[in-house]
Each structure stands twice: as structure tokens, then as C-alpha cells.
Write a structure and sequence with these properties.
Length: about 260
């Protein structure tokens, strides 16, 4: 089931976007199908982009190539307990609802995935250092044994000194362009997490700020440390014709986030 179309638009600027500085999009709280469709549409453009967003309801996003998951996940989705969607990016399943997600589009990343992860995550490490909770890169080996993204912390992820995983990230490379997704866990829903994954949610220290104040800290770090400059001092919403293009992707079933059957 698809969620209602997001009700935001801006007259914006017409003309080709290639070669322009990165686009900062406003935050949103939408259904998983729309959030994934927006990111897939942004990747198809020739302009860097960055956005933070939340989820309208508890959502379990599956990695692009994840083909096996516990049967009770589908049962929880059928009962309306969660929304089940597929991300365009790789990795394993992530429970959204107690997190803040990010997406960045980088048209000219370095060819090394490890280097791209490092450069695309610098803004996060700077922001959390400012918040007094420094982050390190994970060092677990990649494994397909677990269906839960937050069970392991690889070089794509960021952890605290005690090993607790704060941020899980995943990538999609297409035509030399990079989409990097990330989930910043803030207050994971303990009961639903246990029900889905059969283990406790990550035990994370509360941050010094929340809500709009936290997003302001993250935006400031992104403006200073993303691997591309952002053009606007204020966010540039999707225009009406851009929302129509995203809706068309959903209608044609061309987005891996448009539900899981």
C-alpha cells in the first residue's frame, strides 16, 4: 500500500542541473515507499543532493539484494504493525521509527567503496564529536548470516568506543553515481525490535539534543564536511513536476522501495 503523496513544493529554478552545487532538501516524514522513491529519483539526476528524513510509521527496510527474511516479518506487515519496503541501496534490514535517516547523492565519488564510505561519513563523525559522543568505523567482517543490519558493524558503519552501533550505512552505485543511505539510531523501539530480531535493541546513550536542534547540528556539519558543497542556505523543496516524476516511478513499479511482496 502506498502512502499519500507529500504535500510540499516550490517554484524552484528551471534549467539543467549538471555542474551545480549540491541540493539540500527539507526534512520530511513520509511512508517508506515515498522516501525510497525520492532517493531513487534523486540518484537519476546529475546533481549532488543531501537530505535528512523520518518515517511516518514503523518501517522495516530491506536491502536491495536481501532475499531471505523471517516469515513473521511478513505477518507483522500484513497485520499493519510495520510497513515493509525495499531500499534501492544494499545491506540488511533496518527498523526505522526511532531513528533519523539520511541520503546523499554523490555524482563523482572515488572508485573505492571504502574510501567513499569514509569521505561520505566525515560529516557524521564531526557532528557526533561536537555532541560529545565520538564515533569510530566498525571493523566486523561482512556477513550474510544475519538479516539485521545492526547486528554487525562493518567499515560502512559508525560505532561508539564501547562498540554500540549508532549509524548503519549502505550504498547503491549506478552509472558511476553514488547513493548512500544511513540510519542514525536515536531511540530504537525496544519491544518491536525484540519482536522482529529476537534480541535487544542497541543500548545507546541519549544525545545532548533532539528534534530540530539535533537536525541543525547535523545540517551544519553536513554543510562543512560533505564531499561536495551545498548551494542553498535554506532547503530547496521538490517542485510539483519533480513530485509527479517520483509518483510516476511508484506507479510504474520502478522503485525497489515500493513495497515488498
Amino acid at each position: 500500500m502506498q502512502s499519500t503523496a507529500p504535500a510540499f513544493s516550490s517554484p524552484g529554478r528551471d534549467g539543467p542541473e549538471g555542474g551545480r552545487p549540491g541540493r539540500w532538501l527539507p526534512g520530511s516524514s513520509l511512508g517508506g515507499d515515498w522516501q525510497m522513491a525520492i532517493d531513487a529519483w534523486l540518484l537519476a539526476q546529475e546533481r549532488p543532493a543531501f537530505r535528512l528524513y523520518r518515517w511516518l510509521r514503523p518501517t522495516l527496510s530491506l536491502g536491495r539484494h536481501q532475499r531471505r527474511w523471517p516469515e513473521h516479518w511478513q505477518e507483522l506487515a500484513a497485520a499493519g504493525r510495520i510497513e515493509l519496503v525495499r531500499r534501492p541501496s544494499g545491506g540488511r534490514a533496518v527498523l526505522h521509527g526511532g531513528d533519523l535517516s539520511y541520503a546523499l547523492i554523490w555524482p563523482t565519488p572515488p572508485p573505492s567503496k571504502v574510501q567513499a564510505y569514509a569521505e561520505a561519513s566525515t560529516w557524521l563523525r564531526r557532528a557526533f564529536a561536537q555532541l560529545g559522543q565520538p564515533l569510530l568505523r566498525g571493523n566486523d567482517r561482512c556477513s550474510l548470516a544475519s538479516a539485521n543490519c545492526f547486528e554487525l558493524a562493518t567499515a560502512a558503519d559508525l560505532v561508539h568506543a564501547d562498540g554500540s552501533k549508532r549509524i548503519g550505512s549502505a550504498q547503491l552505485w549506478r552509472g558511476g553515481r553514488l547513493l548512500q543511505h544511513g540510519s542514525i539510531q536515536l531511540a530504537p523501539p525496544a519491544g518491536l525490535w525484540q519482536e522482529l530480531f529476537g534480541r535487544p535493541a542497541p543500548c545507546l546513550r541519549p544525545l545532548a539534543c533532539a528534534g530540530a536542534e539535533l537536525e541543525a547540528v547535523l545540517h551544519t556539519a553536513a554543510r562543512q564536511y560533505l564531499p561536495f558543497p551545498l548551494a542553498e542556505l535554506s532547503p530547496e523543496p521538490l517542485r510539483a513536476k519533480e513530485l509527479a516524476a517520483v509518483a510516476e516511478l511508484l506507479g510504474l513499479g520502478e522503485v525497489s522501495g515500493a513495497g515488498v511482496g
